[in-house]
């Protein structure tokens, strides 16, 4: 039954992706707001269809911590779920993604229409320059910058190396950073076809000021809050690693 539910979800997700990608391509000559509305619908459908077919519910805590003005969001990344959920949570977003994602048929085309900051990671210096320049432009236009500081999806119970790119954008633009913790990998594991029923928790932390701080200092504050919050919300899903109990990660984080 788990496999059948997951298959039903992916079938609906794929059909919706193709339709929305074509809609975005057709809407290219039209105002950007129309393409953005199409992608927002795609995210709403994906999250709602996941709840209906696989029983994956969600809750958001700390919504009141979001500033009124556009800021940089630095989020934990465990599955594809948060890429859709954050799109729904924030009023206008500009995603920081690796350039190769734009090459994926249909999905990449729709992503491209959202004007993401697509980085060529093979050239680190150029990628950093592009991130700071385009990030500043997007923030000035009122778009929230969303970046995963660990660079890729990290399995539940694991911890990646936090990079300072998002903090550099925020410090350069003089805007705060909003840390986000999410335990989605316990229900939709990285690179897994199966989706397990349960309730994902997405926690929005208090905005971290960048005034008078270096990017490295801001990144350390982001990491400390996210990993401490992960220790609090983790270990409740069916896909928590069998060889690691929550207590195994609580100690080092608290220390």
What features would you describe in this structure?
- With 255 residues, the protein is α/β, with parallel strands linked by helices.
- The protein has one domain: Glycerol-3-phosphate (1)-acyltransferase (3-Layer(aba) Sandwich).
- 46% of the residues lie in helices and 14% in strands.
- The chain is built from eight helices and seven strands.
- A seven-stranded mixed β-sheet has the order 1-7-6-2-5-3-4, with helices on both faces.
- Strand 3 (93-98), helix 4 (107-112) and strand 4 form a beta-alpha-beta unit.
- Helix 6 (165-173) crosses helix 7.
- The N and C termini lie far apart (42 Å).
- Mean pLDDT is 89; it is low at 247-255.
Compact description:
The chain has helices spanning 2-26, 32-54, 81-89, 107-112, 124-140, 165-173, 215-233, 246-254, and strands spanning 56-61, 72-75, 93-98, 117-119, 144-147, 177-182, 198-204. By secondary structure, it is of the alpha/beta class. Strand 3, helix 4 and strand 4 form a beta-alpha-beta unit.
Tally of separate domains: 1
Mean pLDDT score, rounded? 89
What structural class do the secondary elements suggest? Answer: alpha/beta
CATH homology superfamily name: Glycerol-3-phosphate (1)-acyltransferase
From the 3D coordinates, which CATH architecture would you assign? 3-Layer(aba) Sandwich
Continuous helix count: 8
Largest sheet features: 7 strands, mixed
Order of helices and strands: HHEEHEHEHEHEEHH
CATH class: Alpha Beta
Report the β-strand fraction as a percent range.
5-15%
Poorly predicted sequence stretches spanning 5 or more consecutive residues: 247-255
Q: Span from first to last CA?
A: 42 Å
Radius of gyration: 18 Å
User: How are strands sequenced across the largest beta sheet?
Assistant: 1-7-6-2-5-3-4
Number of strands: 7
Query: Would you give the CATH topology?
Result: Glycerol-3-phosphate (1)-acyltransferase
Summarize the amount of helix as a percent range: 40-55%
């Amino acid at each position: 039954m788990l496999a059948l539910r997951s298959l039903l979800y992916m079938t609906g997700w794929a059909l919706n992706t193709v339709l929305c990608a074509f809609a975005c391509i057709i809407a290219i000559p039209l105002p950007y707001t129309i393409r953005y509305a199409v992608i927002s619908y795609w995210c709403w459908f994906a999250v709602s269809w996941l709840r209906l077919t696989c029983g994956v519910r969600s809750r958001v805590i700390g919504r009141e911590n979001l500033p009124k003005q556009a800021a940089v969001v630095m989020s934990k990344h465990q599955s594809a779920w948060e890429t859709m959920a954050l799109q729904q949570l924030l009023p206008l977003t500009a995603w920081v993604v690796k350039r190769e994602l734009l090459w994926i048929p249909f999905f990449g085309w729709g992503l491209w229409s959202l004007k993401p900051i697509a980085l060529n990671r093979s050239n680190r210096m150029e990628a950093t320059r592009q991130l700071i320049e385009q990030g500043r432009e997007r923030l000035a236009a009122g778009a929230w910058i969303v970046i995963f500081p660990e660079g890729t999806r990290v399995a539940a119970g694991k911890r990646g190396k936090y990079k300072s790119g998002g903090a550099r954008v925020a410090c350069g633009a003089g805007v705060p950073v909003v840390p986000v913790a999410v335990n989605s990998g316990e229900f939709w594991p990285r690179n897994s076809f199966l989706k397990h029923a349960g309730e994902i928790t997405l926690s929005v932390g208090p905005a971290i000021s960048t005034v008078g701080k270096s990017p490295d200092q801001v990144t350390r504050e982001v990491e400390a809050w996210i990993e401490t919050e992960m220790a609090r919300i983790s270990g409740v899903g069916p896909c928590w690693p069998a060889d690691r109990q929550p207590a195994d990660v609580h100690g080092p984080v608290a220390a």
